[in-house]
Amino acid sequence: MKRTIVEVLLALALIGAGVFGWLSWKQAQTAKGQVTELQAASEEAAKAVTASKAAITAAEEQVAALEEQLGPLQNKVKELDAIKGAMSSGTTLADLEAAYKTQKSLSAERQVGLGALRMLTKGGDDPAALEAFRAALQLTDLGSRKNTMCAAQIALAAAGEKVTVMSECLPQAAHGAPDAHGKPDAHGKPDAHANDDKAAKPDAHGKPDAHGKDDKHAKPGDKKGADAHAAPHWSYAGDMGPDRWGKEFPTCAKGKSQSPLDIVGPFVKARTSLSAEYKEGPLKILNNGHTIQVNVPPGSKLRVDAKPYDLLQFHFHRPSEEKIEGKPMSMVVHFVHKGADGKLVVLGVLLKEGNENPGIKTLWANMPLEEGPEVAPDGVKFNPGSLLPREFDFFSYEGSLTTPPCTEGVTFFILKTTVNVAAAQVTQFPFKINARPVQARNGRDITMN
Ligand SMILES: [Zn+2]
Predict the structure, then answer these.
(1) Which of 193, 205, 211, 290 is catalytic?
(2) Is 290 a catalytic residue?
(3) Higher pLDDT, 92 or 202
(4) Which has more confidence, 221 or 28?
(5) Residue 410 near residue 199, CB atoms below 8 Å
(6) 75-93 mean pLDDT
(7) Which residues have a Cβ under 8 Å from the Cβ of 380 and sit 6 or more positions away?
């Protein structure tokens, strides 16, 4: 093949040169004075032949180099074929699936393993393989489980799925890719979950500078530098996950009235009355690195036995932090209120997978996907009441902030009636997991009306 190309190219070059020479000679016949030109033309033709030869030699060298590179790749293909052959009976996959079936839920790592094995034995378009990779993506967050997340992203992309593979997952990963959340070191302040926590501060209500200061740290790009001298950070996984919060925030580990709780009976009859008077106002929404939070302008109130508590903000957790008889819901909204005496009251509304939620649609359309300062989209108004169910029956107990510093003395009301959220809306929420596990009840009463 190679030799044929060489011959053809040589022949073409020679024919070209010959024709050129012949034409020149014809001219010379009629104008002898042009002999010199003919000679020059012949020389040009000779040069062209030489150049063609050089080009052919270079091409040959390139082919040889490519063949050299192809060698190891061919070996890899053979190895892969051997593995595929070994797995092709399907017994290994069946064994693995049988072993996994006994487990309630699979870790992201096992999902990726299962997906990889399925992809290898059943091919890149096996729906169950893709499902496993998608499940793994759902479970992983950035940071501690980056490798698993990357494996799932790359596998889905390889199978032709529309998946964004983060730049840090690629071989020549450039650092500092702006990612939405969850990086354990992406936020350095204990009160970044400004919601619960900010509310704990006496002057926290809606003061833009309460987090404005932090926002400087939150800008992508200078996160790390800012964190070097920032307050201790925390996250929902890895080195600073919920089981380590106590190291920096002692109440999180030592407190006896911590939130959230698994809501299980027996219940004590509640004698409290509860009603909400939430008002529409301009939307102010932020991504604080731990959740999506809406800061509420003054005027919206919760009444507990006629005593008013101002609604400061509300934010979301995925899945719900509260469990009802051991089961979490898809998400929960926490409405954080403060009384004139500084007492905090949190109203929890559980979101259950179902129809699309129009209120959440508005919020998601305006939420910042990256950690950063509060944004107030032009002309967008929002009524927090649109996220409440009609029925106001509740469970109630004395608990704490569910984020560091886990301050206690917070009254929780969890509404029994859930509100719908579409599965797609749950997926759109930029935090895959931002829920603290349930805490020890320590003999606390849970009331119910
Ligand atoms: Zn919360």
Answers:
(1) 290
(2) yes
(3) 92
(4) 28
(5) no
(6) 75
(7) 282, 283, 362, 366
Q: Which long-range contacts (CB under 8 A, 24 or more apart) does 63-66 make?
A: 63/2
Q: How far is the CA of 107 from the centre of ligand 1 (A)?
A: 25
Tell me the CA–centroid distance for residue 405 and ligand 1, in Å.
13
Average pLDDT over residues 197-215: 36
Question: Bridge-partner residues for 398, per DSSP?
Answer: 411
For the chain, what is the mean pLDDT? Answer: 79
Identify the residue whose tokens are 């919601």: 195
Which carries the bigger pLDDT value, residue 84 or residue 314?
A: 314
pLDDT score of 154 more than 60: yes
**From the CA of 191, how far away is ligand 1's center (Å)?**
12
User: Which pLDDT score, from 0 to 100, does residue 233 have?
Assistant: 84
315 CA to centre of ligand 1 in angstroms: 6
- Please state whether the peptide bond connecting residue 260 to the residue before it is cis, i.e. omega within 30 degrees of 0: yes
CA of 402 to the centre of ligand 1 (A): 6
> Two tokens at 373?
């300062």
Distance 365 CA to ligand 1 centre (A): 21
Torsion angle in degrees (nearest 10) through CA of 386, 389, 393, 394:
-70
CA–CA separation, 376 and 133 (whole Å):
36
Please give the C-alpha separations between residue 263 and each of 37, 192, 397, 417, in angstroms, as whole numbers: 102, 27, 9, 14
Which residue do the tokens 């006496």 mark? Answer: 202
User: Which of the four pLDDT bands, split at 50, 70 and 90, describes residue 117?
Assistant: confident
Instruction: Specify whether the CB–CB gap between 274 and 301 falls below 8 A.
Output: no
